[in-house]
Amino acid sequence: MNSAPSGRRPLTVIVPCKNERRNIRACIASFAEIADEILIADSGSTDGTLQIVRDIGGCRIIEREYVHSGDFKNWAMQHASHDWVLIVDADERVTPELAREIRAVLSGPDRADGYWIYRENYFMGHRVRFSGWQSDRCLRLFRRSCGRYVGDTDHAEVSISTGRVGRLRHRLRHYSYWSYDAFFQKFNRYTSWQAQVWHAAGRRPNYWRMLFTVPTRFLWLYIVRLGFLDGYVGLQICTLSAFYSFMKRARLWELTSGLPQPDPETSSASPGPLRSDPGRCAA
Fold it and tell me: What domains appear along the chain, each with residue ranges and CATH number?
């Protein structure tokens, strides 16, 4: 952790995490030289993540239960010592080029209160250049006095009250998924939560949208957004993205129209124990 040089606005880097043993050391090392404070916001790690953080040193740890991304990050921001914050997920890396650009922004004229940062995405270790991911961006560098996450899902985004928002040129490296087990763990959470938000807002499933969402989404990403240029990786990402769009709607249908499975063990008409027939069971 560094002290801000004279003329540079100090920066708190916040890392939300849970069970990130394989990521946390490299993540912290990627931004350590530009951080005046490192705040690790943990939501229940049990894999040794926090011990690694303590071994690294120079970090402050805060802990709380996770509800969803926006809620958790808004809570973590309240604990930052500085107005300027940079949010970095544990599976992301601040490249040297991005670090220099952030340092220059905080040392230069006060032109904006928040900055969009584009991401350089990887899928199971392979760089994704197209497939709709080429325009992936997040508002991660901002004044916490002006910014707050808005939205009740894991894809909540920051809103800057002053409207003064800029854009950084260099990208944040993002290692999205290393296995299908990890993918489907988040897939289930994201689709379930979005369906619950829609259901609470009174939204109803639409048959035609469910019917056409997979082919239209796939063709848009694979053809128009050039997913075919990403080869095997692009084929998988475009297919999974289309299925993701479908499953949000399918889970909404489940909430509005799905019937619960009967539980005969709690019914007053539960049948008695099965009776054996010695004659029929004889060898």
Answer: 11-177 (3.90.550.10), 180-257 (no CATH)
**Tokens, residue 169:** 């040129």
Write the pLDDT tens digit of every residue in 85-136.
999 999 999 999 999 999 999 999 999 999 999 999 999 999 999 999 999 9
For residue 165, CA distances in Å to 1, 75, 106 come to: 27, 22, 14
Nearest to 89 by CA among 15, 11, 142, 20: 15
For the chain, counts of helices (H) and of strands (E): 8, 12
Provide DSSP, 51-82.
HHHHHH-SEEEEE-----HHHHHHHHHTT-SS
Q: Which helix (H) or strand (E) holds 209?
A: helix 207-219
Distance CA 32, CA 6 (A): 18
Decide: helix, strand or coil at residue 220.
helix
Question: Is residue 62 a contact partner of residue 40, using CB atoms and an 8 Å limit?
Answer: yes
Question: 């010695």: which residue's tokens?
Answer: 278
What pLDDT sits at residue 266? Answer: 85
Over 70: is that where the pLDDT of 270 sits? Answer: no
pTM, full prediction:
0.88
Strand partners, 11: 84
Mean pLDDT of the chain: 93
